[in-house]
Amino acid sequence: MKRCCQKKDVPRRTLVPWLLALAVCGVATGRAYAQPNTVLVNGSFNIPPVAWMSPGDPEFDTIAATYGALPLPAYWFPDFLVWPPNYTDIFSGPSPLAGFLSSLPPGDVNLVAHSHGGNVAIMSTYLMYRRLRHLINLATPINWDLPGVLGGAGADSRCQISSTADWIQFIGASPYQVLNFVYDIYQSIVGAIEAFEALFAGDYATAYAYFSQSVFDVIDATYWWLTTKVEVEGPTYMFTGLGHSDLHTPPVWNAIRNYCATN
User: Fold this and answer.
1) CATH class of the domain comprising 37-173+236-261
2) Strand arrangement, sheet containing 236-239
């Protein structure tokens, strides 16, 4: 190394190749240093290893191709106590996840979480000093009981991916949201029955009143249904006809990657 720094020992014609080599090494080192940290977070009731978070799985490989780096799994478990009133495992997950994310090498951190793992991910952002580049929640229940999940997480980009046909996502929300939906559906059915009975009896005014109330109850039920799926912070990309596990498949990822993963 000392001889490289002594100009008299290095012929002038050899300086150009040396400088080019150093430049190439510097660029390569910079690219490695800037390589994003991609982290995958499991959902509830997932015992490691989870298929979509493992090398060789189509979803894992698709995410790896997007960021040019192998994703790292970050498990929170046993993750079975995810129900009210205390949501034990959900509340115990953010601190270890925050510690793991904070320990990653410098560079962008992209976090992709499934189901309640998204709520764990959101809460973890309040416990660490670095910001996420992308936070992508797949089929995460929007649960009003969990503090902070409706607020702005520490992420430059945040996306919620939901499906109108995902009942598990709905059930994972707050009992307040779920029971309001169930109550409105019940009321709409009762109103419809009363409307038809009044109609058959020739009481059109009463039939109209019950029918109108039934329609209103359906609209209100739809509101409560959507509160479990539509994120208030950042955009929500809604799919139709897809189940809970379908939302971490390559077709879904490819459909949202340009909006949520690479922007």
Assistant:
1) alpha beta
2) 72-74, 37-41, 109-114, 132-138, 155-163, 236-239
